[in-house]
Amino acid sequence: MSRNKQVSELMNRQVVTIDKGEIVEVALDLMERNDINHLVVTSDEKVVGILSIRDIMEGLGSFRFQKIPARRIYVSALMTEPPVTIKPTNTIDEAIEVMSEQEIGSLPVVDDGRLLGIITETDIIRLLSANESIENLVKEDHPKIMPNERIVHARSIMLERGARILPVVESGKLVGLLTERDLAKAFLDVRENIDPVYMDNVVRRIVVDDIMVESPTRLRGFVSVIEARDMFIDSGLPALPVVDQEDKVIGVLMRRSLLRLI
Q1: Contact, 78 vs 38, CB < 8 A?
Q2: What is the set of domains in the chain, with CATH numbers?
Q3: Which of left, alpha, beta for 235 (phi over 0: left; psi -120 to 50: alpha)?
Q4: Taking a C-beta distance cutoff of 8 angstroms, is the pair 208, 150 a contact?
Q5: 3-class DSSP state for residue 47?
Q6: Which residues pair with 12 in a beta bridge?
Q7: Cβ–Cβ under 8 Å, residues 49 and 43
Q8: So what's the pLDDT on residue 63?
Q9: Nearest to 109 by CA among 101, 19, 98
Q10: How confident is the model at residue 131 (pLDDT cuts 50, 70, 90)?
Q11: Do residues 58 and 159 make contact, with C-beta atoms less than 8 angstroms apart?
Q12: Sheet strands side by side (includes 173-179)
């Protein structure tokens, strides 16, 4: 069975790492260039933490770093430590259990202190073969947001509701998508280009419409699990909006919810 495979069989051996002494701007650039949402953080070649796009979004938008420019915010201040890791000999079933319990999307693979690879939700859902509908997996009460709402409010919703994306709606119809990366980039831009005295006022004037992704990827109706899997792999998104024939949002499908079907 797929769940009995060892982590070493699925893990990605090409791991993008960053030193804990780097600034957050470098981290976000690495994520952008490699189209990933997690970086393994090292110090003296040892794994000391993990930095996610959510960590960056949460940190750059917090009062903790009020009026501090981006060049003075370091990876060590935002990373999660110690990192949750897994061994190459652990099973996929064990990896799924850890990801679900810890609500994380990736696990560095470490053996005797050596970083061997990384395994992610996307790596695991490639094992899916179920052809059932996604209907029972769609979260209909997932939060949404409107284009004229402020991004500081969007950040609060994401953190309070555990959302990875926010469908942007007008009259119930999907008009855009807001992701953790969109918010992280917006907060970073303010910290890079605005005088610290004015940062708070400027960021509070930015609305969702200014930074959202227009014409976003979406699932039309209750498609098969296989179709949803393929769209997650192609888009790299952690969740996808589900719409009806009129583009009205039915709910959101979380990538993590597919793990239970393996």
Answers
A1: no
A2: 2-125 (3.10.580.10), 135-261 (3.10.580.10)
A3: alpha
A4: yes
A5: strand
A6: 118
A7: no
A8: 85
A9: 98
A10: confident
A11: yes
A12: 165-170, 173-179, 213-214
- Give the separation between CA 250 and CA 262, rounded to whole angstroms: 25
What is the full DSSP assignment across 218-257?
A: -EESS-BHHHHHHHHHHH--SEEEEE-TT-BEEEEEEGGG
Phi, psi of 192 (to 5 degrees): -80, -35
CB 239 within 8 A of CB 164: yes
Pair of tokens at residue 138: 């769609």
Q: Is pLDDT at 1 greater than 70 in this prediction?
A: no
What is the identity of the amino acid at 250?
A: I
CA distance 49 to 41: 5
pLDDT digits (tens, 9 = 90+) for 174-227: 999 999 999 999 999 999 999 999 999 999 999 999 999 999 999 999 999 999
